[in-house]
């Protein structure tokens, strides 16, 4: 059996009580540790739902999600929160930075959620990550005083802060121009290669998808294409 | 805790205008509370002071009218011991009616004799003396201003008095007093204890033992202590609260109405904070959602809003205390009678102010509970789905 860092088993997701809409249909898929995966599909195909379920932000109607070999099915909200904090990093289409805080403080946030106070070591690490994403110069800027590309790179730096095993990215470059988009993907690749972080990225951009190790296509809540290079 | 607090602080700092508005709202609430509270308390204190400040607040008398209390010195020691912290200005009075005769007039008066030094506490006779001095010799008396005018008597004159039992003697007027109450000025003649005891044939007894207490509103309880300590069925102990029931019910009505005003002011403050914080939850739902997605627990997310409530309460309370004390001081200083004295004297009770500030902090914390609960229910998915 392959070494899956995250795996879904027969996951169904149905929205609505009176009018039921099936977003995911008996979906089973696993992602190997250290792999770089792209998920593609039409809008409304269920790819974001899958990513949110993998990220434990949403619960499946049926089936289970196994992260690091542990089923998340019976975990409490608090335990899921801890799991997300320690194991997962999220990058969304919108950066969702806290506008009241500087870039550095935003990057430190996942660490502070876990530990309360940022120590010298963690501040050093946050600075290193900001350097890695090329934002050393603007680390003390409030997030509202940065460009769209800088904001998204800050969000990526934040996702990396707690040494996550998996980074889940939902159209992370959807709002960025093509030049910045290239920069972000080069960065993802670099992190993947240097730190061995698993990436699961939803994208509309075929060019981006083609650079991944594996392309999964979702149609109407089911996997219709799974290509491993 | 620390993270929740620093996020709360940052949220408040980042929307300074909104924060200032809530703080101002709480401050006005607290200041109105302090102002009304101080005003009503000041008003009541001055009213009570004017009514019983210069009168006996607890009086021990003989049950049978006209009987005298013997061994008054021992009894006074026992009384003082019954509640040494509360009882002040203890004094013995020998008094009785007499007919005063001048060459062309006669009138019934009450002769009251007491130790001038002891009486200073309650009656402050020295201050009230308009001319002459207190006579310490036998048969020295001082006469009320209105009586002196009526009988055309001046300092240095001698007058004759007769008791109901037929005792007759001459007295030297050494001073004229003004107690600012016409009925007393017309009917009282004051003298030293010895003179009164001899003339009224009290046989070294006294008519009544008078005293004041530190907490005037606790006079009834102290009176019970006195009664217990004396344990004498021939004596009766009365207090000013029984004699001034109408005044007291007026005062308690006033207290109740001021309390009502304060409660409603506080309710409006609570509703104000709750609604502004509820709006702020909507404003900050993105941030809260992403914090939860990053693993922040529900309770901690709630704490952010609870801390905001506490911080707003503390800031509002501090500003409110300043504003309230300033307002009370201005009222006492600038709203004055024709003679320059305050219409209502300033009365700052720091204990009451502390309670008002505490209630404000508690109320704003309670008000933040509603948004805190909303936050704990916020699903990060909602934020991520809807952007």
TrEMBL record, chain A:
Name the record gives this protein: Lipoprotein ABC transporter ATP-binding protein
Residue span(s) of domain ABC transporter: 6-228
Molecular function (Gene Ontology), one example: transmembrane transporter activity
SUPFAM superfamilies named in the record: P-loop containing nucleoside triphosphate hydrolases
Keywords: ATP-binding, Lipoprotein, Nucleotide-binding, Transport
Keyword Lipoprotein belongs to the record: yes
Gene3D superfamilies: P-loop containing nucleotide triphosphate hydrolases
PROSITE patterns: ABC_TRANSPORTER_2
Protein family per UniProt: Belongs to the ABC transporter superfamily.
Superkingdom of the source species: Bacteria
GO cellular component, one term: membrane protein complex
Signal peptide segment: none
UniProt KW Lipoprotein keyword: yes
Automatic annotation (TrEMBL), chain B:
Residues in ABC3 transporter permease C-terminal domain copies: 261-380
GO biological process: lipoprotein localization to outer membrane
Alphabetical list of InterPro entries matching this protein: ABC3_permease_C, Lipoprotein-release_system, MacB_PCD
Keyword Cell membrane: yes
Pfam families: FtsX (PF02687), MacB_PCD (PF12704)
Listed name of the protein: Permease
PANTHER family, per database record: LIPOPROTEIN-RELEASING SYSTEM TRANSMEMBRANE PROTEIN LOLE (PTHR30489:SF0)
TM region positions: 21-40, 259-282, 303-330, 350-373
Record keywords: Cell membrane, Membrane, Transmembrane, Transmembrane helix
Organism: Acetobacterium bakii
Membrane topology, from the record: Multi-pass membrane protein
Positions of the MacB-like periplasmic core domain: 19-220
Any one cellular-component term (Gene Ontology): plasma membrane protein complex
Record has Cell membrane as a keyword: yes
Chief location of this protein within or outside the cell: membrane
Taxonomy, superkingdom: Bacteria
Compartment list: Cell membrane
Recorded family membership: Belongs to the ABC-4 integral membrane protein family. LolC/E subfamily.
């Amino acid at each position: 059996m392959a070494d899956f860092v995250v795996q879904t088993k027969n996951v169904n997701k149905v929205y609505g009580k009176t009018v039921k809409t099936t977003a995911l249909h008996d979906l089973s898929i696993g992602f190997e540790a250290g792999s770089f995966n792209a998920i593609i599909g039409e809008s409304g195909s269920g790819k974001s739902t899958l990513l949110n379920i993998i990220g434990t932000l949403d619960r499946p109607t049926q089936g289970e999600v196994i992260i690091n070999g542990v089923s998340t099915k019976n975990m409490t909200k608090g335990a899921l929160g801890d799991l997300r904090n320690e194991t997962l990093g999220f990058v969304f289409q919108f950066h969702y930075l806290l506008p009241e805080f500087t870039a550095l403080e935003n990057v430190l946030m996942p660490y502070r959620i876990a530990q309360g106070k940022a120590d010298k070591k963690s501040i050093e690490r946050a600075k290193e990550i900001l350097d890695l994403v090329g934002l050393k110069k603007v680390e003390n800027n409030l997030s509202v005083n940065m460009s769209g590309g800088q904001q998204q790179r800050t969000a990526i730096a934040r996702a990396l802060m707690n040494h996550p095993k998996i980074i889940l990215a939902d159209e992370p470059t959807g709002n960025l121009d093509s030049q910045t988009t290239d920069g972000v993907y080069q960065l993802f690749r670099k992190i993947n290669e240097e730190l061995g972080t698993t990436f699961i990225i939803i994208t509309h951009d075929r060019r981006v998808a083609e650079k991944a190790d594996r392309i999964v296509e979702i149609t109407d809540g089911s996997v219709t294409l799974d290509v491993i290079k | 805790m620390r993270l929740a607090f620093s996020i709360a602080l940052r949220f408040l700092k980042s929307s300074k205008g909104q924060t200032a508005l809530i703080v101002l709202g709480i401050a006005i609430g607290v200041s109105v509370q302090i102002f009304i509270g101080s005003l009503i308390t000041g008003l009541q204190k001055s009213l009570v002071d004017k009514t019983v400040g210069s009168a006996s607040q607890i009086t021990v008398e003989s049950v049978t009218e006209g009987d005298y209390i013997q061994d008054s010195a021992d009894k006074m020691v026992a009384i003082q011991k019954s509640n040494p912290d509360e009882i002040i200005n203890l004094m013995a009075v020998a008094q009785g009616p007499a007919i005063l005769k001048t060459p062309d007039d006669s009138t019934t008066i009450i002769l009251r004799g007491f130790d001038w030094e002891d009486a200073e506490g309650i009656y402050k006779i020295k201050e009230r003396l308009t001319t002459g001095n207190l006579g310490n010799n036998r048969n020295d008396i001082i006469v009320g201003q209105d009586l002196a005018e009526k009988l055309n008597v001046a300092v240095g004159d001698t007058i004759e008095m007769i008791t109901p039992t037929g005792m007759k003697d001459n007295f030297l007027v050494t001073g004229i007093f003004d107690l600012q109450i016409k009925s007393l000025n017309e009917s009282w003649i004051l003298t030293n204890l010895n003179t009164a005891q001899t003339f009224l044939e009290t046989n070294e007894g006294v008519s009544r033992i008078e005293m004041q207490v530190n907490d005037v509103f606790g006079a009834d309880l102290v009176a019970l202590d006195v009664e217990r300590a004396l344990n004498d069925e021939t004596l009766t102990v009365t207090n000013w609260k029984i004699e001034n029931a109408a005044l007291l019910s007026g005062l308690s009505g006033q207290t109740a109405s001021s309390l009502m005003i304060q409660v409603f002011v506080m309710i409006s403050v609570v509703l104000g904070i709750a609604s502004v914080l509820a709006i702020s939850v909507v404003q900050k739902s993105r941030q809260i959602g992403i914090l939860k997605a990053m693993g922040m627990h529900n309770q901690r997310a709630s704490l952010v809003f609870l801390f905001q409530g506490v911080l707003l309460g503390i800031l509002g309370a501090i500003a409110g205390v300043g504003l309230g004390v300033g307002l009370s001081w201005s009222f006492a200083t600038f709203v004055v009678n024709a003679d320059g004295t305050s219409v209502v004297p300033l009365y700052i009770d720091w204990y009451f102010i502390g309670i008002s500030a505490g209630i404000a902090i508690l109320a704003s914390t309670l008000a933040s509970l509603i948004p805190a609960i909303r936050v704990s229910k916020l699903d990060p998915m909602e934020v991520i789905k809807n952007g």
